[in-house]
Amino acid sequence: MVFPLWRVRPSHLYLRCSGIHARRCLSTPRSTLSPPTVNLLGAEYPTDTTTNVTSSISSKLGRNLHLQSAHPLGILRHLVESHFHDFTAFSQFSPLVTPAKNFDDLGFPLDHPGRSLTDSYYVNRDLMLRTHTSAHEVEVFAQGVRAWLLSADVYRRDEIDASHYPVFHQMEGARVFSGNANSMRDLEEENENLSAHLAQKNIVIEDVPHVSETNPPQAGHDPRHSELVARNLKLSLNSLILALFGGRVGASEANPLRVRWIEAYFPFTSPSFEVEVFFHGKWLEILGCGVVQQRTLISASVQDSISWAFGLGLERIAMILYSIPDIRLFWSQDPRFLTQFTPGQIHPFKPYSKYPPCHKDVAFWLPDSGLHENDFCDLVRDAAGDLVEDVKLIDKFTHPKTNRTSQCYRINYRSMDRSLTNEEANAIHASVESRLKSNFGVEIR
Ligand code: PHE
């Protein structure tokens, strides 16, 4: 893998992390004091020095796009639930979770970059917006459910472009097996049936071993059981992918659906995998999965069992299935968007006219404490809302004499619903500049 980071572009998954942690800011310096409480989903929460939820983020809580039956995300959720029809489906968990639930219970190391204030949204040091649906694994397993799905909105601070938005939706799925010989024999038979079914279909799968030295079974697992469970996970997901994409995105005999499995690393599964689908000439990552770390099942008081779990990104899949070109569209309230979708059906999105973009640059000297790109992007998002389409660092240099560093970002403003006037864009841009000065003490050049 070229970028061995959790923030692999354009990933939405927690991937292998590297020495980058050391360079990440753990705190966001702010000169403005936040109010003593913040209102989220109708309740007041105390703030502290870690608070970094912005009003543009808190306004997204409770929108629950995945629950709207005629919204592409709701339709996709429903399709996945229909495919795994004997799984119990959950979709009403609160996005406010403790860092313990989101990270500690899943074995995230203390220096994992996902924990930092630059990467996640904190209400205060004891409460955050979940960054992935895996945050609910322990509590769902603890209910004793043996096969389940859970869909939800998740929140991550990130860059701004057509495929990144600080709120997106994931669907977690898991299945628990008894670890005894009978159950493993049944699983072996089920695997043979699934595999025979897939063999007849127009799908080309590049695979990796179910377990290997670099993607090992867990110490407490019988390696043969681990292998059977990993194989079942792969077969189950290949069937889902076939159900979602097969025949829809130009798959034909001459041009079959291509799927590739890649070894991955997650703190809460081993062996672990990612899946990519070949679409319009590119490999797109759509999910992460693996054999659940036994620690999770033990925390949930599930005995003598072994489990697989996956987490898939709904926006990523919906953008492919519906040909939706910009992730902001999912949040559109424009009837020209919303009326195009029908429950249970997938047909390509018909773009309405694309309005002209308007780009503006902002160049500034960095403050001594630095400025993380995600802090910059959140500030722009807060000033511009969904009128910001793209943010790119276009220039960076350090003055040889003063040793000060200057950065120049190009911000592309564009509305998806109407023409933006130059005056409007100027006013938003002026607000970006003044927030940069007051919140981060930067000097505009
Ligand atoms: N929660 C992981 C992520 O968002 C995906 C995942 C889910 C991986 C379940 C393994 C098992 O990156």
UniProtKB/TrEMBL annotation:
PROSITE patterns: AA_TRNA_LIGASE_II, FDX_ACB. GO terms for biological process: phenylalanyl-tRNA aminoacylation. Keywords: Aminoacyl-tRNA synthetase, ATP-binding, Ligase, Mitochondrion, Nucleotide-binding, Protein biosynthesis, Transit peptide. It is found in: Mitochondrion matrix. SUPFAM superfamilies: Anticodon-binding domain of PheRS (SSF54991), Class II aaRS and biotin synthetases (SSF55681). It holds the Pfam family tRNA-synt_2d. The keyword Mitochondrion applies. It is an enzyme of class 6 (ligase). Residues 353-445 form the FDX-ACB domain. Gene3D superfamilies: Bira Bifunctional Protein, Domain 2, Ferrodoxin-fold anticodon-binding domain. Coiled coil: none annotated. It catalyses: tRNA(Phe) + L-phenylalanine + ATP = L-phenylalanyl-tRNA(Phe) + AMP + diphosphate + H(+). Its EC number is 6.1.1.20. Is responsible for the charging of tRNA(Phe) with phenylalanine in mitochondrial translation. PANTHER family: PHENYLALANINE--TRNA LIGASE, MITOCHONDRIAL (PTHR11538:SF41), PHENYLALANYL-TRNA SYNTHETASE (PTHR11538). This is Phenylalanine--tRNA ligase, mitochondrial.
